[in-house]
Write a structure and sequence with these properties.
alpha/beta, globular, 9 strands, 223 residues, Rossmann fold, single chain
Amino acid sequence: MIPLKPADISSIAVIGAHCDDIVIGAGATLMQIACDCPHIVVHALVLTGAGTEREIEEKEAFATLFPQADVRLTVADLPDGRLPEHWGLVKHHLGQFRRSCEPDLVLGPQRDDYHQDHRLVAELIPTEFRAHFVLGYEILKWESDLPNPSVYVKISDEVAHEKTKLLARCYPSQSRRDWFDDEAFLGLMRVRGVQCRARYAEAFVSEKTVVSPFGVQFGQLSG
């Protein structure tokens, strides 16, 4: 087990197809990063939801997650559920986003997600972030598409429950969904915790790992 220290991270980039994707997939991990690195620079891109209640929800969630950080959140107005029809615009937004930041860590959806919007974003992230530490988060939903993860982040009981409270409080528009509840989110974190000998954990997919054994460099790259 090789530790990756949050204290070594000064800037992160987080990407989602929809408002709430990032918090569902990596909210507890982000809480822990914010605790260890309160003044971190957070670059965030969400491709749908601009001008709607969803954007308001996302801004509130990020303000709660990162009360002291420099948060640079962009919410675009591409159509929810139809991102593959707008491949060029998705690529354009990701390209602009990439040119605006040089993060130590990139979080986005995992490539084998069955939702077409998530999957497209996951496929395009490595085309822009070609030499970065990229982790793909998982989103629990109706589709049976959970991955076999390769990276685990151990989560304390307190942070796990804080994540579920934040989701319920900041995203009331999603409360009608039958999978959007505390039991579902805690259940997945509990399963991932079992898999890494912890109470709770969030899990991620790393598509490529590069290791320099003599301490010159260590990183996990996706691209």
